[in-house]
Amino acid sequence: MALNASRSLALAAGLAALLGITQAQAEQIVIKFSHVVADSTPKGQGALMFQKLVKERLGDKVRVEVYPNSSLYGDGKEMEALLLGDVQMLAPSLAKFDKYNKQLQIYDLPFLFKDINAVDRFQHSPEGKQLLTSMQDKGVLGLGYWHNGMKQLSANKKLQDPRDARGLKFRVQSSNVLEEQFKAVRAIPRKMSFSEVYQGLQTGVVNGAENPWSNIYSQKFYEVQDYITESNHGLLDYMLITNAKFWNGLPDDVRSELDDIVEEVTTAVNEEAKQINDSDRQKIIDAGTTTVIQLTPEQRNEWREAMKPVWKEFEGDIGKDLIDAADKSNQS
Ligand code: LMR
């Protein structure tokens, strides 16, 4: 039998008295925010800022618990946990959504965006924004895009032109586009959870990877990679998501306050992400354990020419119009 509102309130009060906690605490909405990176990264900082602002503005009504570094759920399990209601918020990389909406594969196309400002323009366009609400029928609601940054190639050998990658094993996120990207340069892609990458690189299960500076630094990947090529060849950004049923079922006043906080945090993350990546890049150079390689414009062009055929392979899934809209964002 369904409980009516006054009976459930009375129950909450009774339970609270029994446990020696206040009624407000007993009725508290708990938001578990799980992610796979370190607190110091753009996503890690965003999750902590969200937690802080919710505490300041919503007091006892809502409690946010942040679980960084795959400490609660790692890749592969976190989406399932969100759909089951075991966590309420995540910010997976855009490379991890192809099971839910193949159009999101657009963000993995190599050499699509010339820089993070172009990414920003696309994400703010009507085409970019509609992708946030495109998975509601699957129970997933996008609340915003959070930047990390452009990816750099790393390996245990010098990567200057695409032929250098031949035969090397590269760790990729669970994305078919990224698999094809490495096959295009005749390398061997291996899908692997983020939490396994350090060990994979250390033991030689894989020889290389692609990550933004903030992930290379905070996970210490640079300690097990002799070379990093400053390739900026692709993007690693996130979609901040929630369980649609959970979010839509929140009391209106709480949801509206949370929406405002999400907007504020999103702006802050996106302003700070570049600075975090720039400073982590410098820390890696200062550590002196890894050689950072600059590409000449001609070399970068060779990588682009080698990888760009991947666009055509996924045009059917993504849609040519969407690719054109993203490409247009390169013109400021
Ligand atoms: C990865 O698996 O490399 C990234 O998606 C990790 C992250 O969340 O930045």
Automatic annotation (TrEMBL):
Residues 1-26 form the signal peptide. The keyword Transport applies. InterPro entries: DctP_fam, TRAP_DctP, TRAP_DctP_sf. GO terms for biological process: C4-dicarboxylate transport; transmembrane transport. It holds the Pfam family DctP. NCBIfam families: dctP (TIGR00787), TRAP_S1 (NF037995). This is TRAP transporter substrate-binding protein. It comes from Larsenimonas rhizosphaerae.
